[in-house]
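Intended use. Records like the one below are meant for learning the mapping from a protein sequence to its folded structure. Do not use them to infer anything beyond what is encoded.
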Amino acid sequence: MLKRLPILVFAGLILFHISLVLLMFTQWAADAVLFTNLVSASLYLPSLLFAKIGLPVFEKGEALFPGFTLWGWFMLCLFWGTIYWGIARLVNRLMRTGPSRRSSGTPQKRAVP
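Structure written out for the chain above:
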């Protein structure tokens, strides 16, 4: 189970983020301004960083909220995928080295070669 844990956590985080983006287009989200702003920020803030370094992530000609190019969507997926994979690896490491496997505070002697 622990070998598949990072993949399960990663898939769960990706599905959660996709569901938030899809939920943003419902009537409930139209009334929840804070929710809509948070989800939009999760898309536009990383893209603005990529645009600042010169990557073509936004379509030309759009003024206020430009659409994403194919390269922009790829960079967003890569950005969030990297963050979520890091979280999944951290959860896996914490699960493998839980409190029962940590040292009890007494120093261990090392074998000297």
